[in-house]
Amino acid sequence: MRGYRTLMKQAMRSLLGRVARSALAVAAVLAFSGLNVPQSNAQDLAKTLFGAKDLPAATAPQSIGFYSKGCFAGGVAIATDGPTWQAMRLSRNRRWGHPTMISLIEKLSRDAVAGGWPGLLLGDISQPRGGPMLTGHASHQIGLDADIWFTPMPDRRLSPRERENMSATSLVNEKTHRVIEKLWTPAHERLLKRAASYPEVERILVNPGIKKKLCDTVTGDRSWLRKVRPFWGHDYHFHVRIGCQPGSPDCKRQAATPAGDGCDKSLAWWFTEEPWRPNQNPDAPKARDVMTMASLPKACRAVLSAPDPVSVAAVTYPVDGGATISAAEPVAASSAGAQPLPSSISAFAPTPDIGVPLPRSRPDN
Ligand SMILES: [Zn+2]
Q1: If you measure from the C-alpha of residue 31 to the centroid of ligand 1, how many angstroms do you get, rounded to a whole number?
Q2: Residue 242 lies in a domain
Q3: Residue 132 C-alpha to ligand 1 middle, in angstroms?
Q4: How much distance in Å is there from the Cα of 35 to the middle of ligand 1?
Q5: Average pLDDT score over the chain
Q6: How far is the CA of 34 from the centre of ligand 1 (A)?
Q7: What one-character DSSP code corresponds to residue 316?
Q8: How far does the centroid of ligand 1 lie from the alpha carbon of residue 308, in Å?
Q9: How many domains does the chain have?
């Protein structure tokens, strides 16, 4: 563990050093050329401005605001290909996250492979500077959320076209909301357990059918089930959320997950008719479609106008930073699963939390 952390720190230091140098270089160019950085107006749609950014803000890493209303600076990208992962839907340019999120994905991929999973297919993380997106996701705005496919990585490199078009397989019957037994495997359970084992990970969102399957079948240590929360969708991918990181004083934490494994009446609610009623107001605009710059934290304007790094490569997480690290430790139920959860643990906003939850608005992804 210590070896891993040391190596990771070195990798991050060299990466952040590069980011800082490129930020300085660009800032110097701006100062000398007297260029005006375009200003955003309060009424501008945030999704348009953030969706137009190809590169992160070249500053120190910082998440600002809330998972569903915020942005982030100092983002880094995960490489499109690593020894233990492949990123999907490359055209979306959502391979960006807080450096801790990116290094955690890399570590999860390596640990998962060491434990027998063929490798990760990565879905959306965040836009380069976060913020609301033109399509999909209510959250994923502050670089601390990532989607990972339940479909194992194939043993060949997918073409860019395949990464756009390959469809993922749902593990859940959409009528019964139960897991499709012939598709569910113990390896899926192990992958989720491993993801939940990291202290940084505060929540993992899965379809209620998957949560129920875990509730019904996990034996031994069940403490990690507390982090695994049922939510709409998430039948072909799971969503990993980490907590606010040091250096982000404006990152807004969420409420704690309720105590216990969550295999209770809050789960039973998902197997009633209520959560699946048709949307009564399908044409109502989604939050991301009306969110203006004024509704985001003020600091997000500075994030928008911050300089670019010199290149994507300069801010892409070093693949070899992980590849040289020796085989990962197996998930140790005693240490990892039993890790006490921090009291500041965050929750995914719209997830019903306690008792019999009230219906909330449904996301579109
Ligand atoms: Zn997600």
Answers
A1: 39
A2: yes
A3: 13
A4: 37
A5: 82
A6: 40
A7: B
A8: 26
A9: 1
333-350 confidence digits (pLDDT tens): 333 332 222 222 222 223
Whether 333 maps to a domain, the answer reads no
CA-to-CA distance for 155 and 225, rounded, in angstroms? 30
Residue 279: band (very low, low, confident or very high) from pLDDT cuts 50, 70, 90: confident
CA of 141 to the centre of ligand 1 (A): 10
Ligand 1 centroid to 239 CA: how many Å? 5
Q: Measure the CA–CA gap between 266 and 275, rounded to whole angstroms.
A: 12
Would 123 be classed as within a structural domain?
Answer: yes
Sheet holding 145-149, edge to edge: 81-82, 85-87, 120-122, 145-149, 237-242, 201-206, 228-230
Assigned domain for 143 exists: yes
| CATH label of the domain that carries residue 14 | 3.30.1380.10
Q: How far is CA 194 from CA 84, 190, 274, in A?
A: 15, 6, 32
Q: What's the pTM?
A: 0.80
Instruction: Please give the residue range of the domain that contains residue 99.
Output: 2-272+287-323
CA–centroid distance, 29 to ligand 1, in Å, is 37
Question: Which positions ≥6 away from 81 have C-beta within 8 Å?
Answer: 87, 157, 319
Mean pLDDT of 240-248: 97
How many CA atoms lie within 13 Å of 241's alpha carbon, on the beta-carbon side?
A: 25
- The torsion region of residue 258 among left (phi > 0), alpha (psi -120 to 50) and beta comes to beta
Write out the H or E segment, with its range, that includes residue 65: strand 62-66
Output phi, psi for 330, to 5 deg: -65, 160
